[in-house]
Write a structure and sequence with these properties.
The structure is a homodimer of 223-residue chains.
Chain A: H1 2-36, H2 39-70, H3 74-107, H4 118-141, H5 144-168, H6 176-209, H7 213-221
């Protein structure tokens, strides 16, 4: 019974890593669809995101099943409750990737991203892939130090987000209102995607240390 | 012991209703701050939202405490797990209200909302207050029929959101790129606020019926 229990907990943890790797595929594919105005890739991305939603259902059921059958306490309860939160974050990241793909689809055969901001958007896509890759690794290693470093990767995304807004709202913007509106939303999707990856890190810190992540991070910085 | 348990479950349910009522205050106040370019009200809204975040912490701790001490099963486990999800939705609604207030603050003493779209934004604010009021009532009554009606209220918000985009992206738009970008984000915040209210309804359907809300809603429509 206990062996089954620990096998179930381990399987749940593995499923979370799998979800995060699918999120990585989704956001990389969404960015390609966006930058290349590739309708087929946009639709493929949306399919991947739908699969991630199915994974979410499966993980939630597994977590609730563990609560019902095993009535975990202490660190094992923390694992299951954290898994429930992580599943929401990882599913939301997929939805945000599908929103990015949807912008590409909506503007096809046109390009949603004008040449003037193509390099910034490409870097936002790279930053999204980098941070979700780190989140996947943190889910696997459960290293709170690595989890803390997700914050710095998020700073990169925030800086790109600011740069995008400065360009779109700047005096030299000549690409019109529709592109500006698309980019405002795209910027938000990428930024939120990274925010959820940061949340994955924070929840991992809580999972491992049992401490409030903000408090833990502050104490660590003051060392 | 069991009496205490049921009192704790009831208190958690009451706290969720309280959170939703604070969300209503927050989004009403955020909309006023936005439409009147009122800095003081914008800052007051942001304070209310910070209080809601504290309520979230308290509710999460209460829910996890119930899992640890009482190891609930069946419908009581469903109550606690649903509460964990509801807390996330209700906290997110507060964050979205604070984003709306932040747009007002950022543009102060200017107006973020040009006169041309003021009526639409005012109606989006009204729709947000209406749907969160219904969500609060559903959290209190746990009536799945009322919960299902949140979907129709969300249709109102979606229609307003489309109307806003059509205006901003239309040929007669003369209010510039900055206002267009602000409105794209504001539209998204109101729309997401309503989406989370719908989620409150769906989770209540699951809580009461134990069924998948989508399946339950479809079966109900086919009656």
């Amino acid at each position: 019974m206990r062996t089954q229990y620990h096998a179930d907990l381990a399987r749940l943890a593995t499923q979370l890593v799998a979800m995060s790797l699918h999120d990585r595929t989704a956001v990389a594919s969404a960015t390609n669809a966006l930058l290349n105005a590739d309708l087929e890739q946009a639709e493929h991305t949306i399919d991947v995101c739908a699969e991630i939603d199915t994974m979410r259902d499966r993980c939630e059921k597994a977590a609730v099943g563990l609560l019902a059958r095993q009535a975990p306490v202490a660190s094992e309860l923390r694992q299951v409750v954290t898994a429930l939160h992580l599943v929401s974050d990882l599913a939301r990241m997929a939805t945000l990737a599908s929103h990015i793909a949807n912008v590409a689809r909506r503007r096809h055969p046109g390009h949603a991203v004008p040449d003037s901001v193509r390099p910034i958007v490409a870097r936002m896509g790279d930053a999204a892939v980098a941070i979700v890759s780190s989140a996947a690794q943190v889910l696997d290693s459960r290293d709170p130090g690595d989890a803390a470093r997700l914050d710095q990767q998020d700073d990169v995304m925030d800086e790109l987000h600011r740069e995008l807004f400065t360009t779109v709202l700047g005096p030299d913007w000549t690409d019109g209102v529709t592109a500006a509106v698309d980019l405002a939303l795209l910027g938000r999707y990428y930024e939120r995607f990274a925010d959820h990856a940061v949340q994955v890190g924070r929840r991992t810190i809580f999972l491992v240390t049992g401490e409030d992540p903000q408090t833990w991070l502050k104490e660590r910085q003051s060392l």
